């Protein structure tokens, strides 16, 4: 029997899932969940290149204020996010900023508001395969602080509010019942999404840097439904969160 070592196999070659080879991407990547949001990131860039689109992982590159930027979609949830981060790291990405959407869990968060992550409650299965359940899922401190500073700066004078706090990553969107939502609210968890747990844990274990800024899609304790007419506000929030992430990449020279 020859047991494969996945950590040594596939280094330095075009990656199996994301379809990217070393040299095709930059040192920093913005990570939306949805492949259709990658061209939204490209709207901010010059010299845009379509690099690959396999499965849920679409990748484009370009330049923002002279900085080479990559945008790759992770798909929904921790399994495909862990794969994207592992494979992007193998082709040269060292810093990751997730630009997502997320449901608010505290009163006052409205669709389109910006949510900066200070850490993640790991309610996912993927990271359990990587690390002890007590291992923290935390962003790079400098990226988190800079995302918050720039989010406040870019939102000043607008109706967009900026929040910073701990979020949760769930696996099962439709299994979030009232008891679980109330418990997260009681713990002071700001918002829930589905990818940052894997992003942070894989990044820490592989010596990479990561952060996250989301636009609120809804509010699970305040009656702001996903099915309301507030989706335009969420799109504005996405665009602003992308700009915040790009400015952070420039300011920290990621
Ligand atoms: O908008 P994205 O980045 O996909 O993020 C959120 O949206 C999806 C659920 O609707 C999940 O992926 C969740 O994390
Ligand atoms: O974005 C998300 C993720 C999990 N649950 C939600 O309601 N929204």
From TrEMBL:
EC identifiers of the protein: 2.4.2.3
| Protein's name in the database | Uridine phosphorylase
Report the superkingdom from the record. Bacteria
Reactions catalysed, semicolon-separated, are: uridine + phosphate = alpha-D-ribose 1-phosphate + uracil
User: Do you know which PROSITE patterns this protein is assigned to?
Assistant: PNP_UDP_1 (PS01232)
The family this protein is said to belong to: Belongs to the PNP/UDP phosphorylase family.
Gene3D superfamilies, per the entry: Nucleoside phosphorylase domain
Residues annotated as coiled-coil are none
Which parts of the sequence belong to the Nucleoside phosphorylase domain?
28-224
Q: Which Pfam families match?
A: PNP_UDP_1 (PF01048)
Q: Which UniProt keywords apply?
A: Glycosyltransferase, Transferase
Q: Which residues form the signal peptide?
A: none
Q: What is the lineage of its organism?
A: Bacteria, Bacillati, Actinomycetota, Actinomycetes, Micrococcales
């Amino acid at each position: 029997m020859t047991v494969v070592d996945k950590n040594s196999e596939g280094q330095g070659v075009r990656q199996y899932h994301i379809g990217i080879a070393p040299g095709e991407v930059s040192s920093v990547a913005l990570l939306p969940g949805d492949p259709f949001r990658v061209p939204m990131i490209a709207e901010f860039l010059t010299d845009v290149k379509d690099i690959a689109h396999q499965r849920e992982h679409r990748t484009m590159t370009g330049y923002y204020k002279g900085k080479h930027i990559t945008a790759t979609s992770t798909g929904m949830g921790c399994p495909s996010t862990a794969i994207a981060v592992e494979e992007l790291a193998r082709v040269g990405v060292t810093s990751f900023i997730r630009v997502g959407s997320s449901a608010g869990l505290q009163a006052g968060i409205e669709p389109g508001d910006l949510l900066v992550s200070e850490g993640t409650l790991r309610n996912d299965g993927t990271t359990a395969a990587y690390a002890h359940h007590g291992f923290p899922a935390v962003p790079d401190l400098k990226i988190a602080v800079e995302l918050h500073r720039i989010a406040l700066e870019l939102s000043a004078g607008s109706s967009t509010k900026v929040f910073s706090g701990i979020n949760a990553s769930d696996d099962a969107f439709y299994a979030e019942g009232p008891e679980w939502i109330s418990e997260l609210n009681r713990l002071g968890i700001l918002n829930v999404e589905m990818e940052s747990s894997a992003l942070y844990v894989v990044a820490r274990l592989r010596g990479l840097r990561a952060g996250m800024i989301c636009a609120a899609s809804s509010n699970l304790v305040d009656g702001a439904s996903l099915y309301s007419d507030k989706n335009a506000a969420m799109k504005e929030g996405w665009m602003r969160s992308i700009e915040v992430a790009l400015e952070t990449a420039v300011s920290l020279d990621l």
